[in-house]
Amino acid sequence: MAMDASEETLRRAMADKQAAVDFQGNTVRDLKVSGAAKADIDAAVEALNALKLEKSSIEKQLQAAITGGSRAGSLSRDAFRQAVGNTLERRLFYIPSFKIYRGVAGLYDYGPPGCAVKANVLAFWRQHFVLEENMLEVDCPCVTPEVVLKASGHVDKFTDLMVKDEKTGTCYRADHLLKDFCKDKLEKDLSMPAEKAAELKNILAVLDEFSAEELGAKIKEYGITAPETKNPLSDPYPFNLMFQTSIGPSGLISGFMRPETAQGIFVNFKDLYYFNGNKLPFAAAQIGQAFRNEISPRQGLLRVREFTLAEIEHFVDPEDKSHPKFIDVAHLEFLMFPRKEQTSGQSAKRMCIGDAVSEGIVNNQTLGYFIARVYLFLTQLGIDKERLRFRQHLANEMAHYAADCWDAEIECSYGWIECVGIADRSAYDLRAHSEKSGVSLVAQEKFSEPKEVEKLVIAPTKKELGLAFKANQKNVLEALEAMDEKEAMEMKSALESQGEVEFHVCTLGKAVTIKKNMVTISKETKKEYQRVFTPSVIEPSFGIGRIIYCLYEHSFYTRPSKAGDEQLNVFRFPSLVAPIKCTVFPLVQNQQYEQIAKQISLSLTAAGISHKIDITGTSIGKRYARTDELGVPLAITVDSTSSVTIRERDSKDQIRVSIEAVASVVKEVTDGSSTWTDVMWRFPTHTNASTDE
Amino acid sequence: MAMDASEETLRRAMADKQAAVDFQGNTVRDLKVSGAAKADIDAAVEALNALKLEKSSIEKQLQAAITGGSRAGSLSRDAFRQAVGNTLERRLFYIPSFKIYRGVAGLYDYGPPGCAVKANVLAFWRQHFVLEENMLEVDCPCVTPEVVLKASGHVDKFTDLMVKDEKTGTCYRADHLLKDFCKDKLEKDLSMPAEKAAELKNILAVLDEFSAEELGAKIKEYGITAPETKNPLSDPYPFNLMFQTSIGPSGLISGFMRPETAQGIFVNFKDLYYFNGNKLPFAAAQIGQAFRNEISPRQGLLRVREFTLAEIEHFVDPEDKSHPKFIDVAHLEFLMFPRKEQTSGQSAKRMCIGDAVSEGIVNNQTLGYFIARVYLFLTQLGIDKERLRFRQHLANEMAHYAADCWDAEIECSYGWIECVGIADRSAYDLRAHSEKSGVSLVAQEKFSEPKEVEKLVIAPTKKELGLAFKANQKNVLEALEAMDEKEAMEMKSALESQGEVEFHVCTLGKAVTIKKNMVTISKETKKEYQRVFTPSVIEPSFGIGRIIYCLYEHSFYTRPSKAGDEQLNVFRFPSLVAPIKCTVFPLVQNQQYEQIAKQISLSLTAAGISHKIDITGTSIGKRYARTDELGVPLAITVDSTSSVTIRERDSKDQIRVSIEAVASVVKEVTDGSSTWTDVMWRFPTHTNASTDE
Fold first, then answer.
1. Considering only alpha carbons, which residue of chain A is nearest residue B145?
2. A143 chain-B contacts, CB cut-off 8 A
3. What does the pLDDT average to over A406-431?
4. Cα separations (Å) of A455 from A371, A458, A524, A525, B415?
5. A104 interfacial to chain B (CB closer than 8 Å)
6. Main-chain dihedrals φ then ψ at residue A547, nearest 5 degrees
7. Which fold has domain A90-149+246-442+540-562?
8. Taking 60 as the threshold, does the pLDDT of residue A75 lie above it?
9. Which residues of chain B have pLDDT under 50?
């Protein structure tokens, strides 16, 4: 996140100009004090004003550079977010949870249309991933005993750094306060030296990596205080983000609400591997609630305390991460943002996933395959492909065990938001649970013919060790057996040449002398019939709520009403996602039309098309506006007893279709077997003004 | 739960016979002691043995009567449960959660086939209820702040009574211990007096209503101790069954994991009513996780600590609970178990729901409509209609505010299990949240013409009250205004006749004297344009996991293998529920057949049919057995390059179908548009022994 060249230039110019203004100001003052000639003073004032004008011009350019375009752009981004948010809340796509009790930060309900959108997104996820890829779906509880999350590392490391207002006790995320401080300073203090600006920009870039001490030092250095009260802040300290509870009546079994669904899959590896006929690769999947007790949730629907995750754990032989179906997606091109482009200040670029894998930018075929499948999933939902990029984690962002990691980031009014993480986590998770549980979570590869392998054999002589080390003999014995090949072979040659060797036993905290008669070290050739190994896991993890929110923003637009007196809201959801597929309106309130509407409704139900009848007497224009605001693709207006009008949401085109044909036309358009343009050719266009908006 | 007539007779006969045996035993002893003649002694012993034989015969009959059939029946019920359970666990329909860490009681995962069954059941629920009834679906968080569950009564009353082993601290449900004691005693102590047996039976019947004191007294009276240690037990005390947690970093906001999904709907009533165009009736629905921290979970999958609920809240005008679609279901007949039949010791009887409503057995049409819809839902899933009954709550089972309540109970190896509750909860929940939140949760009925109504008007004279009561005037004023019509009219006449009256002000804790000049009480006629009221709510609540478990038991059967050497397991799931709809087997491992299997797989995917290819080389019989055990309705065997065999699971009938037609045949059978018998007529039957089991 290097400072933009033009911004840096402008900051330098700004600082220079400020210095020039200050200097010229002094000059004017000096001239006045020394009683110089009026003409000289006037000339100096004129020069000062000219400098001020130049400064103001640079200031404007700088401001524009900082806000990434123009002030107006930034304002309209906020206005856009507000317009989407208002529509979503008014039409109950979502509702702040427990609203009548003034709500709880970070908890939201899905109202009826939101709930339908979510169900559609999840059904498509299941179709696109679980069914098409033959994944093994599981469904595990949210309540999780501590031991599982101790093994996974969440008990010790799933924390954010927190500071407290020392007087009121209000809690803040330490990194958020520092981030806000830097952003605010950069936006408002335009005449700060370019070096200072670069320092703040650098902090924003590396903020996520700061330790508690580093964060605390910066907060002190910049004199950051509690936002509301301006009180001093405590030192930062880690706060675990899991909701804690206890299981059973005794209060003795500590448990947590799961922070992710993945652990439920890992602990079932053995059964699932068996279920899959003891064959690799295979993938397991889970859709379910996850919980994070955020310190102070911000960003509305994007950072919440309870959310739906859909996670895949694809288990694969670490020595063979090829994917048989990679060839089907290798040609796909989309925006990728590899590590190199990020660190060299370039931007995301369009790449072919086949090339990205063959050039080694993406670590392996399986990872590449999932990146491509995620691309297809998101764009088919209606995510704008120009505002979707795959960003590779920088080395410092990745866990030490991860082989490679890419985030699907979607641009919305909050910036680029991580919505799907696709990580090659190597063998970390299965090893962690193997160790903690004592149950071996491994796979076997049977060789078609036995293989000859050289094996290190360390054979301590117990009797000699007992005589030499008495009570410590067990520690020495275990340390000898734990030597790796290099250590053992070095000891062997030392014993052969010198007869004895100093050997550090870490469990004793000291070195002992090992003599030749105490241990035999050799290499033996053995026949092996199978290879036993811990599978690697490739994990695509989907934040369903974030995807849905970005989809709302990408689908939203406004257009003027026919009279031009107001802006109407539209969600251009694909049929796949739309909460219902069509509405049925009798043009006027009369029994005959309502009867036909009911008849059409029955045929739509029989065809499996979700729909709603609107028999309110409001104008057809108002009813269209209402259905557009819910993103319903088609509206059927009953305006005669033989045929009806079907109107498409975005084009507002209308066609006339017989009552018998209407369900099948709606079906073929909404299930994707025909496009609207296809059916437009087959039916007469309708232009009757009475049903127009 | 009156004692069964024959059991009571047998218990009396048993007690009589025992007395006769004891008497005769004494007689024998006396004869021996008094040195009576050998012939006399022999005769007495013979009589004693005859009595013992008779006693033993009665004992056997009694034992049979208690276990509801025969000992063998009881044993086979256990064996059946074990057989189902083994199959379910071996084929990963479910997995004890966190198994590698030795699990947690009451937590289970759904493995791949279980997960698919659950998804199918939920999809059908959404179709049958949400879509067909135009319900408003919502999706609320599990984490719930305390205030909401305080209002609903869960914080104070969602408890079970618990006792602790006084030495080890182990916790038990007090009612379970008493229940176990009574059952055990009744089964094993066959010679107990019939009165004693009746007492224990009565306890079993009224156990659920016992207070902590009553339970404690019985536990003391019977000397019940901790089951494992025989240590004494503490007095029973209430244990709240909600998982507690805290929300946010401060630890100050107490929260719980919701014990039901209903509250999320109630708190959103106002928005949902508006969304529905301010019209009643309407229903809202929610599917989601619920949590109960059971004291000591038993009964496997039936009593768990986390489970999926699907709940409907149907809001209706309390003055009009008719239902426009009741006529569509009024003819349905099924087993009902009304209050009267239960208390008079009769059994459930087949009734027509139309009659049950018109005879007033079921409180209203809407309740009756939902009972019928639940019947259709459960039987279409595959629940045996002979083992499904609707049991009305007894007066003492129902909450005081409930108008009527029926449970759909399904019989399985654990007995009759409550799987769906259908309750008319009147206005209780909305009123509770109105009061606690201060937000009015009501509906309006606009009158077509204004109505004249008489209204009570209480107008206190503030000045006089101030002079008379000084600092207490506010309390007096509020107490006057809070009078109901009866109180006010009594005061009015007292003031008119006596000029003053004693008036108790509860907020002051004393009576004050009210004089005529302090308050004017009158009745005025007003015009009203609308009626404002709190809607009643009718709540069908589905325990999805329990329904699924009962479905497993009702669908399971075994049949001998072809060789007759083993029993094969089959789940006769309807296609609607089956985890996948068909399997595809190449008869032998060869590339040509595998290619055709893939081609068929593509056409099945295109038709939206979930399926799996099994290319393992095992015998076709074994592969059929494997697919039967998962309840897959159809299996396609690829045994030629032009046509294939389709085999139906339960009949084992096979037909030959061309490769082109296979997907459409499978589709029409599995989506229910044709039956297997229908298609059997259209295609040649296949009898080739090679593909037989």
1. A104
2. 104, 107, 243, 257, 291, 305-306
3. 95
4. 40, 10, 5, 6, 60
5. yes
6. -60, -45
7. BirA Bifunctional Protein; domain 2 (3.30.930)
8. no
9. 1-2, 69-72, 690-693
